[in-house]
């Protein structure tokens, strides 16, 4: 589980919008990307971003 204060300061590295935690993913609804959380650490790298539509298929 991510620290609530950490989640409040995180922003999408692509569009700088607010992100939300959903399961083991950090999701940006504005640019439709998600980022993994590995061992409790959010991996907020542009190269790690995946399209949200890919995951929902």
Written description of the protein model:
By secondary structure, this protein is an alpha+beta fold. It has one domain (4-56): Single Sheet (N-terminal domain of TfIIb). The protein has helices at 4-9, 52-56; strands at 20-22, 25-28, 33-38, 41-42, 50-51. The chain is globular.
Backbone structural class: alpha+beta
If helices are DSSP runs of H or I spanning 4 or more residues, what is the number of helices?
A: 2
Task: Give the termini distance in whole angstroms.
Answer: 25 Å
What would you report as the Rg, rounded to the nearest angstrom? 10 Å
Element-level helix/strand string: HEEEEEH
Question: How helix-rich are the residues, as a percent range?
Answer: 10-25%
Q: How many beta-strand segments?
A: 5
The CATH topology label is N-terminal domain of TfIIb
On the 0-100 scale, what is the average pLDDT?
Answer: 90
Q: How can the largest sheet be summarized? A: 5 strands, antiparallel
- What would you say the CATH architecture is? Single Sheet
Inertia-based shape: globular
Poorly predicted runs of 5 or more residues: none
């Amino acid at each position: 589980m991510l620290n609530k204060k950490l989640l409040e300061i995180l922003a999408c590295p692509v569009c700088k919008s607010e992100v939300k935690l959903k399961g083991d993913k950090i999701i940006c609804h504005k640019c439709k990307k998600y980022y993994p959380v590995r061992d409790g650490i959010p991996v907020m790298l542009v190269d790690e971003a995946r399209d949200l539509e890919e995951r929902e298929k």
